[in-house]
Amino acid sequence: MRDRTASVMRLLPWNSPEGKPCYLLGGGSGYVSRVADDIERVQLKMAVELLGHAGGMPDDDATTLPEFRYLVARMAESLTDVHRVAESRGARIPAPHDDDQ
Protein backbone atom coordinates (compact mmCIF):
# COMPACT_ATOMS: atom_id res chain seq x y z
CA MET A 1 0.00 0.00 0.00
CA ARG A 2 1.24 3.48 -0.89
CA ASP A 3 1.97 6.08 1.82
CA ARG A 4 -0.74 8.74 1.42
CA THR A 5 1.12 11.46 3.33
CA ALA A 6 3.94 11.44 0.80
CA SER A 7 1.57 12.45 -2.01
CA VAL A 8 -0.44 15.08 -0.11
CA MET A 9 0.09 18.63 -1.36
CA ARG A 10 -1.18 21.55 0.69
CA LEU A 11 -1.84 24.93 -0.88
CA LEU A 12 -0.19 27.44 1.43
CA PRO A 13 -1.81 30.76 2.36
CA TRP A 14 0.85 32.84 0.60
CA ASN A 15 2.37 33.24 -2.85
CA SER A 16 5.96 33.08 -4.01
CA PRO A 17 7.77 36.38 -4.68
CA GLU A 18 6.78 35.85 -8.34
CA GLY A 19 3.09 35.67 -7.35
CA LYS A 20 2.76 31.93 -7.92
CA PRO A 21 0.97 29.58 -5.47
CA CYS A 22 3.14 27.80 -2.91
CA TYR A 23 2.59 24.17 -1.94
CA LEU A 24 3.83 21.97 0.86
CA LEU A 25 4.38 18.25 0.42
CA GLY A 26 3.75 15.90 3.30
CA GLY A 27 1.38 15.11 6.10
CA GLY A 28 1.05 18.54 7.60
CA SER A 29 2.50 18.20 11.10
CA GLY A 30 5.71 20.19 10.70
CA TYR A 31 6.77 23.77 11.32
CA VAL A 32 5.62 25.16 7.95
CA SER A 33 2.19 23.56 8.39
CA ARG A 34 1.83 25.17 11.81
CA VAL A 35 2.83 28.58 10.42
CA ALA A 36 0.32 28.12 7.57
CA ASP A 37 -2.40 27.19 10.10
CA ASP A 38 -1.63 30.34 12.10
CA ILE A 39 -1.75 32.54 9.00
CA GLU A 40 -5.05 30.99 7.91
CA ARG A 41 -6.51 31.73 11.35
CA VAL A 42 -5.41 35.37 11.07
CA GLN A 43 -6.82 35.65 7.55
CA LEU A 44 -10.19 34.25 8.59
CA LYS A 45 -10.32 36.50 11.66
CA MET A 46 -9.52 39.54 9.51
CA ALA A 47 -12.38 38.63 7.16
CA VAL A 48 -14.82 38.52 10.08
CA GLU A 49 -13.54 41.88 11.34
CA LEU A 50 -13.93 43.42 7.87
CA LEU A 51 -17.50 42.16 7.67
CA GLY A 52 -18.24 43.71 11.04
CA HIS A 53 -16.72 47.01 9.95
CA ALA A 54 -18.59 47.00 6.64
CA GLY A 55 -21.97 46.19 8.17
CA GLY A 56 -23.06 49.75 8.92
CA MET A 57 -21.19 51.65 6.21
CA PRO A 58 -23.86 51.58 3.46
CA ASP A 59 -26.41 53.18 5.79
CA ASP A 60 -24.01 55.78 7.20
CA ASP A 61 -24.37 59.05 5.29
CA ALA A 62 -20.97 60.17 6.62
CA THR A 63 -19.17 57.37 4.74
CA THR A 64 -17.15 58.84 1.87
CA LEU A 65 -16.41 57.36 -1.55
CA PRO A 66 -12.70 56.91 -0.72
CA GLU A 67 -13.71 54.98 2.44
CA PHE A 68 -15.95 52.70 0.35
CA ARG A 69 -13.19 52.16 -2.19
CA TYR A 70 -10.71 51.32 0.55
CA LEU A 71 -13.18 48.90 2.15
CA VAL A 72 -13.94 47.19 -1.17
CA ALA A 73 -10.21 46.79 -1.90
CA ARG A 74 -9.58 45.22 1.54
CA MET A 75 -12.64 42.97 1.17
CA ALA A 76 -11.41 41.78 -2.25
CA GLU A 77 -8.03 40.91 -0.72
CA SER A 78 -9.75 39.16 2.17
CA LEU A 79 -12.08 37.22 -0.11
CA THR A 80 -9.04 36.06 -2.10
CA ASP A 81 -7.44 34.84 1.16
CA VAL A 82 -10.61 33.10 2.34
CA HIS A 83 -11.05 31.43 -1.05
CA ARG A 84 -7.48 30.12 -0.88
CA VAL A 85 -8.09 28.76 2.64
CA ALA A 86 -11.26 27.01 1.44
CA GLU A 87 -9.50 25.61 -1.62
CA SER A 88 -6.60 24.35 0.49
CA ARG A 89 -8.80 22.75 3.13
CA GLY A 90 -11.16 21.27 0.57
CA ALA A 91 -8.28 19.66 -1.28
CA ARG A 92 -7.18 17.95 1.94
CA ILE A 93 -10.55 16.30 2.60
CA PRO A 94 -10.06 12.62 1.89
CA ALA A 95 -12.08 11.21 -0.97
CA PRO A 96 -14.69 8.66 0.09
CA HIS A 97 -13.77 5.03 -0.46
CA ASP A 98 -15.85 2.99 -2.89
CA ASP A 99 -16.98 0.67 -0.07
CA ASP A 100 -18.30 3.68 1.95
CA GLN A 101 -21.12 4.22 -0.55
Overview in brief:
This protein has two helices and two strands, in the order ββαα. The chain has 101 residues and is mainly alpha-helical. It has a two-stranded antiparallel ribbon.
What's the helix count? 2
What is the number of domains? 1
Spell the H/E element sequence. EEHH
Overall pLDDT score: 87
Rg estimate, integer Å: 18 Å
The number of E-state strands comes to 2
Task: Tell me roughly what share of residues is in helical segments.
Answer: 40-55%
Distance separating the two termini: 22 Å
- How do the strands line up in the largest sheet? 1-2
- Share in β-strands: 5-15%
Low-confidence stretches: none
Question: What's the helix and strand layout?
Answer:
Blueprint: E1 9-15, E2 21-25, H1 31-54, H2 65-91
Antiparallel strand pairs: 1-2
Helix pairs in contact: 1-2
Short descriptors:
single chain, 101 residues, mainly alpha, two-stranded antiparallel ribbon, 2 helices, 2 strands, elongated
How does this structure look, described?
- With 101 residues, the protein is mostly helical.
- It has one domain (4-92).
- Helix content is 50%, strand content 12%.
- It has helices spanning 31-54, 65-91; strands spanning 9-15, 21-25.
- The chain has a two-stranded antiparallel sheet.
- A hairpin with a 5-residue loop joins β1 (9-15) and β2 (21-25).
- α1 packs antiparallel against α2.
- The chain is elongated and about 55 Å long.
- The mean pLDDT is 87.
